[in-house]
Design a protein that fits this description.
The chain has about 400 residues and is mainly alpha-helical. The chain is built from 16 helices and two strands. The protein has a two-stranded antiparallel ribbon with strand order 1-2. Helix 4 packs across helix 7, helix 10 packs antiparallel against helix 15 and helix 15 runs antiparallel to helix 16.
């Protein structure tokens, strides 16, 4: 059990390291994107203006190609070729592939590859797949390092990049990404079944599992579920759950800013949390909450509680694609209940994250003192050993001098 915990802790830290350089940019983009979504809902005519199209192109590009940015960041952390990593990320998003979100809405993808007739790999792109791309780049870097050891130096410049790219890209497109994409249908069916459970247990289950599904890229089918709810019953009861999860992750992220004394860290954390409050959770989730661990789980608890409250208050939206604070504009029939739900999710997540952070900071001085004492003890041992070695060397010199005489 402890080894699994260590594995996840290390994974979360690596994700934080990978996203640290790009968080300031995507957090700012997330805030602007949220404000633009709100403005378009207030003034729909602006959606067709050239200014909106151009600005949205600038802002949305960072999120469209986020797996590429993650691939480059991962190559720095795992010490691999960043250009090969970027190419592999771009292969996953190649426009010749059918967009995975279009497939969720009924588009036919065709077949990219077949494993001996038993497993057909769909011809789809893998937008939003962050953890899978990190795993892929880790494999790429290990493969590249191994090839550098076994291939003659004179051939390395040509053969290592070629073999690294083709082998990794093949594994990515025919094994790793399809395995994660296969989770899409079970998640879709599971969400439908869960929301039929009595006493709003389904809301709690979906509230707990939504964010983990999101980070593994298994949530792409849920947009079609929202569309089907609007088509069948005229209301989107799934949107408040997503909003509660987003607000909770944002609030848990904000609590970290209150616990940290590092001003530069705080300057990244606050925009990341604001971005989540507008429904764009990537900066808070990948750059802060996963990195520290406890805020991530605080966000899950807050999201689950808020989701149950939303179910009890019969909160529903008239559309989909707009979440968190922006979602107030598509829940006008029960806006107050919606605000209550997302505020409860945010407050619970914030309080848990804040208390968890304070308990960690109290435990840190003891730990650091123990580490300091251990280091001092080790240094003393090294000094004593060095003196012994010097004395022995001097004795040997004296003996050698006497023998020569």
């Amino acid at each position: 059990m402890s080894s699994i915990k260590t594995w996840f802790t290390n994974l979360f830290k690596i994700v934080g390291e990978i996203f640290a350089p790009i968080i300031p940019v995507i957090a700012t983009m997330g805030i602007i994107k949220g404000l633009m979504d709100i403005y378009v809902l207030i003034n729909p005519a602006y959606y067709y203006s050239k200014a909106f199209v151009l600005l949205y192109l600038f802002i949305n590009t960072a999120y469209t190609f986020l797996p590429v940015l993650a691939a480059i960041g991962a190559s720095f952390v795992f010490k691999g070729n960043k250009y090969i990593a970027a190419i592999i990320g771009l292969i996953m998003l190649n426009p010749d592939l059918v967009n995975i979100f279009d497939v969720a809405n009924g588009a036919e993808p065709g077949v990219l590859w077949t494993w001996y007739g038993y497993w057909s790999i769909p011809n789809i792109s893998y937008h939003g797949h962050i953890i899978p791309v990190i795993i892929i780049i880790w494999i790429m870097c290990r493969l590249e390092q191994w090839l550098n050891k076994v291939i003659y130096k004179t051939l390395q410049a040509f053969l290592v990049p070629v073999f690294t790219m083709f082998i990794t890209a093949f594994l990515a497109m025919t094994v790793i990404c399809p395995l994660f994409a296969m989770l899409g249908n079970p998640v879709y069916e599971g969400a439908k079944l869960a929301l039929d459970l009595p006493y709003y247990l389904g809301n709690a289950v979906v509230g707990i599992l939504y964010v983990p599904c999101n980070i593994f890229g298994a949530d792409f089918m849920l947009s079609s579920y929202e569309a089907s709810l609007i088509k069948d019953i005229g209301l989107n009861t799934f949107m408040p759950i997503i909003s509660c999860c987003a607000m909770a992750q944002g609030a848990a992220c904000l609590a970290v800013a209150f616990n940290t004394k590092d001003k530069s860290e705080r300057s990244i954390i606050i925009p990341s949390s604001l971005s989540a409050f507008f429904g764009v959770t990537e900066p808070a989730l990948y750059g802060v909450n996963l990195k520290y661990g406890k805020p991530f789980f605080a966000g899950i608890v807050g999201g689950a509680v808020g989701s149950v409250v939303a179910g009890v208050l019969n909160v529903a939206a008239s559309s989909h694609g707009i979440y968190a604070l922006s979602g107030c504009l598509i829940t006008l029939d029960n806006e107050l209940n919606y605000v209550i739900s997302i505020l409860i999710a945010a407050i619970i997540a914030f309080v848990i994250s804040l208390l968890a952070g304070k308990s960690s900071s109290k435990a840190t001085p003891k730990k650091s003192a123990k580490v300091k004492a251990t280091k001092e003890k080790t240094a003393k041992k090294k000094t004593a050993k060095k003196k012994e070695t010097q004395v022995e060397a001097e004795a040997e010199v004296v003996l050698a001098t006497e023998e020569s005489k």
